Every structure is written in structure tokens, then in C-alpha cells.
């Protein structure tokens, strides 16, 4: 099965990014394909390379970057939502790219399922 | 359809709206704070029990355990892990998150 | 060709039923506005798009929104523009209107009011459901 994943909230404040990550990881471990993970609304904040969470807790941004590297997952941050929130190319953690909302619609079209994680 | 509810019934009307609009034969998965609806004695218990006559209800074990309520789950609710969550999404033709 | 149009071309042939479910009021959070932005983009992809307004989502369609005082953009005219993008299927849950003391006459755009049961049936038949 090919999954599109939509993450609507930023790291830590909501559990959305955690749930999305753990779902995505489980799907990949089961041999499914992740067509794209799309970050919208405050979800764009998952792409910031400047986050510095406490050492004894999970590093949400790095986790996404590692997953992207390990499984070649496409992590896309919505350009309009990113601009609103001050997320720009030079701030992106590895594995993330900024693109248009069309990428979300495309994930819905090309994927077999679109799973949404938010508030 | 796989319906996903992630908020407690005390905080949001997401579960209520989901149950109102879910068709018979759908599956409902409670995740994150939504798992409180799966606990015995909670305000949504009766409503959920009624719904279980026409929907299959699941709860994410990891979220129940995190909140210390894994031992309080209502009878008839099946616990799944993230792999099971993935299987549920595959097993239904579509999914909807009630945020 | 814009990126959206190009992507629309690449996906040419696949037509899916997209339903955008609006359950939140406008202005208190950004979900209504940014949700509408997805709907407008989806128009470029020639998909079978419909919008459902449930719970507080019906408030997005109320006439007479005046946002000068909160210094925010009034985006409600965009709902009237949807028709120009061939997005004409706007469904409003009757129970949601009634629970809020509203009628169809209070809404700024033509909609199809339907019961929960009718809306439930429609939702179940969608390929992609995105809730805002």
C-alpha cells in the first residue's frame, strides 16, 4: 500500500508529529511505501534545524530527518504555511524540502490512503 | 472507513460527531487523548457501547499505556499497536481523522 | 504552466473523490483559512471535489463577517469564488445549522443542506477525506 501522510501540527506542542512518525515508521517496517509526508499549518515547524529539545527526550526533527535518509521518504513543507511562520530554505533540517500545496493533493491522488495527523 | 479520533470526549466533540456520521461497518480507532473514551466509567462509555453494535472499535495500546489507563479498557474494544494501526488503514477503503 | 497545472497534467487520468470536511469556526484558528487554500489548489487537479460543513464549520459560511476590528483578512468571499473554480458541491449538515439557530438564508453561498444520514453516506464513498 502507498501512503500519503499529512502532519498538521508542530513538534512537541501536539502529539500529532509523534503519532505520524510512529505510524510512518511502522508502515515502512511492514514493507509499505510512503509516497510523501506533507507538513501543513504549524506542521511546518517540524522542519526547523534549530530545535534544541532536552537531551533526555526524543528529538522530533532529527527523527524525521533520519527516517527520510534511511527509507528515502519525501518530507515536504508547504511553502505558503512555511512563509507565514518564518520557515525558509536556509532553516530546513536534512531531508525536508519546501514545495506547493499541490504536493499534498498529488499525494492524495497517487497514494492509496491519506492519513491525517493533527490537533 | 477507518475513523480516527485523537481527542478526549470531554475536551472535544470529535468523537460525538464521528459517531453521528460513521456508517455501520466502519472501524473507529482511538489514539492520543482519544483513548480516554475507551476507559470504563468515562462519560462516553454508554454512547460508545451503543456504537459498538454497528462499528468495530479499537484503541492504540501505546497511548493507553502512556496515560496509565491500559488496565481500564471497556470490554469489546480491541487494542492495537502502530503496526495494527497501519493494518486498519489498509483494511478499510478510506480513512478520516476527526480533529 | 504553473507547478500546480504541471502536476495536474502528470496525474492526468486519475480522478478521485476528495471531500474536505470543515468542522471549525473561522478566525479563532487558522484551519478554516488554510483549509480553503487546499481546496482552491485542488481545483487545478481536475478532481471530484466536495466540501462538507459540520459542527462549527457552518460558521465559516455566515453572511456579514466584518474583520476590520480584529485586523485579520476576511476570507469569506473566497467561498463565493469556489463556483468559478468548478467547485460547486458544498454540503451543510442540517443538524449543525439547527443546533446553532441558523438557516440556509444566513449563509453567503448556495449550499445543499442534508441530514447526518445523507452526509454519512456521501462521506463513506469518498476516496480521500481531509478534515480541517
Strand content of chain B: 15-25%
Strand content of chain A: 15-25%
Name of the CATH superfamily of chain A = DsrEFH-like
Helix tally of chain A equals 4
Radius of gyration of chain A: 13 Å
Assign the CATH class of chain A.
Alpha Beta
**So what's the oligomer here?**
heterotrimer
Strands across the major sheet of chain B, in which order?
A: 4-3-2-1-5
- Principal-axis shape of chain A equals globular
Biggest sheet strand order of chain A reads 4-3-2-1-5
Structural summary, described in words:
The complex is a heterotrimer of chains A (about 120), B (about 100) and C (about 130). Chain A is α/β, with parallel strands linked by helices. Chain A has a single domain (about 1-50, about 60-115), classed as Hypothetical Protein Ychn, Chain: A (3-Layer(aba) Sandwich). Chain A is about 35% helix and about 20% strand. Chain A has four helices and five strands. Chain A has helices spanning about 15-30, 60-70, 80-85, 100-110; strands at about 1-5, 35-40, 75-80, 95-100, 115. A five-stranded parallel β-sheet of chain A has the order 4-3-2-1-5, with helices on both faces. In chain A, helix 1 (about 15-30) packs parallel to helix 2 (about 60-70). Chain B has helices at about 15-20, 45-50, 60-65, 80-90; strands spanning about 1-5, 25-30, 55-60, 80, 95-99. The longest helix of chain B is centred in the last third of the chain and has 10 residues, at about 80-90. Chain B is an alpha/beta fold. Chain C has one domain: DsrEFH-like (Hypothetical Protein Ychn, Chain: A). Helix content of chain C is about 30%, strand content about 20%. Chain C has helices spanning about 5-10, 30-40, 75-80, 95-100, 115-125, and strands at about 15-20, 50-55, 90-95, 110-115, 130. Chain C is globular. The interface of A and C includes residues 6, 80, 104, 106 and 108 of A.
Amino acid at each position: 500500500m502507498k501512503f500519503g501522510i499529512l502532519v498538521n501540527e508542530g513538534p512537541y506542542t501536539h502529539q500529532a508529529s509523534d503519532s505520524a512518525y510512529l505510524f510512518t515508521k511502522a508502515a515502512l517496517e511492514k514493507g509499505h511505501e510512503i509516497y510523501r509526508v506533507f507538513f501543513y499549518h504549524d506542521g511546518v515547524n517540524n522542519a526547523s534545524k534549530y530545535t534544541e529539545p532536552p537531551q533526555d527526550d526524543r528529538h522530533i526533527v532529527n527523527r524525521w530527518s533520519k527516517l527520510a535518509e534511511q527509507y528515502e521518504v519525501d518530507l515536504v513543507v508547504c511553502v505558503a504555511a512555511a512563509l507565514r511562520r518564518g520557515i525558509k530554505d536556509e532553516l530546513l533540517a536534512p531531508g525536508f524540502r519546501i514545495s506547493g500545496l499541490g504536493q499534498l493533493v498529488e499525494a492524495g491522488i497517487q497514494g492509496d490512503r491519506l492519513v491525517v495527523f493533527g490537533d | 472507513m477507518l475513523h480516527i479520533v485523537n481527542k478526549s470526549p470531554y475536551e472535544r466533540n470529535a468523537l460525538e460527531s464521528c459517531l453521528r456520521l460513521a456508517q455501520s461497518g466502519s472501524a473507529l480507532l482511538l489514539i492520543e487523548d482519544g483513548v480516554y473514551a475507551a476507559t470504563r466509567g468515562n462519560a462516553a462509555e454508554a454512547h460508545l457501547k451503543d456504537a459498538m453494535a454497528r462499528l468495530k472499535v479499537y484503541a492504540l495500546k501505546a497511548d493507553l499505556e502512556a496515560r496509565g489507563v491500559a488496565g481500564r479498557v471497556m470490554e469489546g474494544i480491541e487494542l492495537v499497536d502502530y503496526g495494527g494501526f497501519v493494518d486498519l488503514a489498509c483494511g478499510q477503503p478510506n480513512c478520516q481523522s476527526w480533529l | 504552466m504553473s507547478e500546480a497545472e504541471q502536476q495536474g497534467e502528470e496525474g492526468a487520468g486519475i480522478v478521485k473523490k476528495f471531500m474536505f470536511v470543515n468542522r471549525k469556526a473561522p478566525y479563532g484558528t487558522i484551519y478554516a483559512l488554510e483549509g480553503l487554500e487546499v481546496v482552491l489548489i485542488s481545483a487545478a487537479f481536475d478532481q471530484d471535489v466536495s466540501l462538507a460543513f459540520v459542527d462549527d464549520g457552518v460558521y465559516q459560511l455566515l453572511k456579514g463577517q466584518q474583520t476590520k476590528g480584529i485586523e485579520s483578512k476576511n476570507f469569506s468571499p473566497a467561498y463565493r469564488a469556489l463556483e468559478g473554480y468548478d467547485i460547486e458541491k458544498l454540503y451543510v449538515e442540517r443538524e449543525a445549522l439547527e443546533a446553532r439557530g441558523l438557516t440556509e438564508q444566513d449563509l453567503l453561498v448556495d449550499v445543499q443542506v442534508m441530514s447526518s444520514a445523507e452526509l454519512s453516506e456521501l462521506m463513506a464513498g469518498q476516496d480521500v477525506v481531509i478534515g480541517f
